[in-house]
Every structure is written in C-alpha cells, then in structure tokens.
What we know:
single chain, alpha/beta, 36% helix, binds ligand BES, binds manganese (II) ion, binds zinc ion
Amino acid sequence: MNIELIQGNILEKTCDFLALYQFKDxxxxxxxxxxxxxxxxxxxxxxxxxxxxxxxxxxxMVFPTFGKMKARSVALIGLGDKKKFNADTxxxxxxxxxxxxxxxRMRSVATNLxxxxxxxxxxxxxxxxxxxxxxLAGHQFHTYKGAQFKKEKxxxxxxxxxxxETDKRALKFGPEGLEAxxxxxxxxxxxxxxxNTPSADMTPAQLVEEAQKLIVRxxxxxxxxxxQKVMERLGMNxxxxxxxxxxxxxxxxxxxYRPKNSKKTVAIVGKAVTFDSGGLSLKPAQSMETMKIxxxxxxxxxxxxxxxxxxxxxxTVHGIFLAVENMPGGSAYRPGDVVTAMDGTTIEIKNxxxxxxxxxxxxxxxxxxxxxDLMIDLATLTGACVVALGEDIAGLMTNNERLGQKxxxxxxxxxxxxxELPLYEPYMEPIKSKIADINNTGGCEAGAIKGALFLxxxxxxxxxxxxxxxxPSYAEKET
Length: 479
Ligand code: BES
Ligand code: MN
Ligand code: ZN
C-alpha cells in the first residue's frame, strides 16, 4: 500500500473514492463534507436525512458521485462522539477504509487527516494513527497458500492512499507522523508474521535467526546468541529442562540497541516457546491448536528492535528471549522434577504445562544482570488471563506503580489495552514447595496472578512489569 501526504483539495483528486467524515449527531455538514455536499447539489445531506445516518463510529454509506466530482464514489464515515475522538478513532478509520475498499472493490482513496480540521487531534498524531490503521488492516498472511490460490484473481485491495491537506501546519508535521506510523506498523506486521508461522518452521533456531536479521550496518544493534553450551555455562537449568522433551536444542538471543547518547537502560524479555504441547502434562487437542503463538512475546521483542533501528531513541535497550519447544519426548522434564534456575532458586515442577515461567525465570535473572533501570516482560503466560480479561486486553502486573501508570497511559494512546491485576502476596501460599524453594503451579484460582508472583521472585528490586499477552497474541477473527 502506498500512502502519500500531499498538498491539495480532496474534492479535486481523481480516485476510486473520496472519504468524508461526520461526527455523531452533527447539526450541519462542515469542512470537506460540507464542501462536497455543495458540489453534489445537496445530495449528501439529502441522503443523510433519508437514510438517517447518525455518524456513529464506523457507520458508513458509499454512493456514486455521478460525475459531479473527480472521485467515482464517496464513502461517508461516522467518527462517533466528538468528545471521545482520539488517535484510536483514527486508527479504526484507517481500518474501515481498507474494509470498505475490499467490499466495494475500490483501489484508491483520497482523504483528509481525520480530526485535524476540527482541531481534535494534532496532524502528526492523526497521520500516524491513520497510517497504522491502514497498514495493519491491510496486512494478510498468505505464505502458506498454494499455487491455485496464488493464481486466482484477488478481490481489489486498497493500493493507493492520497492524504490531502491545505493547512500549512498539517503539511509540515503530518509527514513525521506518517513515517512513524509506517515504522510501527511494519514492526507489528513482522511480529504477526513470526507468530503466524507454523512451529515446524519457526523453531528455536529460526526464531533466533529472525533476531539476527535485525543487525544491519548503522542500526546500533548487536545480537549475542546464547546456544545450548552457553546456556549450560550460565546455569540456565530451568530453561534447559523445558527444552529437553524436544528434538530442537534451546537457544537464546540477547539483542542490544546502544545509541550514542544513552540516558537510561531498559530490558525487554519475551516468552519464546515455539510450540507448547504442554509437555508430559499434555494439553487437550483443542488447546494445542494455536500453541504456535507461544513465542509472541519474543516476536514482540523482535518487532520492537525493528522499530528501534528507525526511531533511534536515546535509551539503551536489551531484548532477551530463550527459545525452547515444550514437547513430551522421552527425555522430557517431568512433574515432580526439581530444576535449578540461574540464580540458584530451586523449582519443583508440578505441571510441565506451566513452562513459560520456568524459562522466564532464567531469562529474567539474565536480563537483570544487565543492570537495567527497568524491565518489562511480555509473555503468553496463562489461559487464566484470557478467562479474566478476554482476547482484547492484556494483563499488567508490576512491582512499581509509576511504571504501571506509564504503561497504562501508553496502552490507551496506542489502543493496545492493558488492565492491571494485583500482585497479591498471600496468593503465594499454594506455590510454596515442600521440597524446593518454589512450585511452578498451585491451585486453579487467580492463575494469572500466581504466574506473575512466580516471576517476581526473579527480578530482585528492579522496577519490573509483566504483560500477560495470552489473549491479544492471536486474533482468531477480524476485529
Ligand atoms: N502458553 C500457555 C498459556 C496460553 C493459553 C497462551 C491460551 C495462549 C492461549 C501456558 O504455557 C500454559 O499452558 N499455561 C497454563 C498454566 C497452568 C498449567 C498453571 C494454563 O494457562 O493453563
Ligand atoms: Mn504451557
Ligand atoms: Zn506456554
């Protein structure tokens, strides 16, 4: 998809359709929508009246211009409540434009930056959100389709987006947002592709190779590979145990982004189980169907590093994951085994399906050795988190209120929702072990919290946040 921000009037642009916007219950047609209505001799306001178009978010009408304007059609799209309008509204609008193009077989669109005309949003933010929405909605995963599919004629896809503005400030600050939107969307699409790739092809070694692809000249990124030997030398026996039932050797990646002027150091740790069968505590068939997604945390780390190469923040970033496959092979770790993490903590395995926390124990200890100012882990850790918060919302658990508040703020701004769950210490009781320092599971209540309490043992005093992304890591249906 090609997205351009250019100077000009959308009414004069030749294209398949013109996107016009309308807030909910607006009394009059203003701005571009009003101007288009005049060009069409009041036809738009007449249609609004006739079809009782209210302007609810995502509500839309597509109608032909009958040669009254250069665009062949007009799509009138509702912006919803003016008071609730924000960057996420614009992101959704990007998505609607892609959907409408598919439904109506249109390939090019002309639009303004939503919310800029009414000063509801700065041009930079609007351009970024619109770009993200367009690219992310347009993203598809066709790698595994066969020859027949590739020959078939595809429905028309949105290929060309003209963003037209006349306002000087919009033209000055818009391009920055457009650029940022492209970078972030491309990072997200990379993460999606890695998650969507079947486990047979996205093995631990392959996942680490994907991380190494990010080392390009001038990116300030390096990547240390922690192969099995290194992991053994470091004493990562917890992570090594999880990998034992698989034919694939475990392997870790330690990415570092080091800018010239570094003000802070952060470590981002991702869960990297390339397939989670449950191990000897085998999952039921249905629960296993989507378990290729169990490396989504690591995919986020890789996506992040792709974005860092362009965004170049003045922060040193460590990206760490230990890739393993959780399988029930003959040398698999067993329920009842005791394994020792890198910091010496002994873990009694009660359930081999609680493998994420066992691998993360070593990853977090290793990350903390980099002396970061803060650590964040992303992990598809518990089904319990999906039960609690559903597929759209990730769980946030933290030992640091300030960090938590910042993440909640960022979640709102980016439309990637987080909800905080408490790290309630009394819930540690059932995960205390009789024979080791800690059990890897205990009881079936508050599973997401218990998972996080387990991880907390391995972060010391470092400000840390755990994001349980089991729900949002995978979208079964279109949103
Ligand atoms: N990878 C799963 C969690 C998961 C479930 C991710 C559904 C995405 C969707 C994790 O390793 C797991 O199996 N967790 C167990 C923990 C239990 C044994 C304490 C779970 O959630 O059932
Ligand atoms: Mn599991
Ligand atoms: Zn898992």
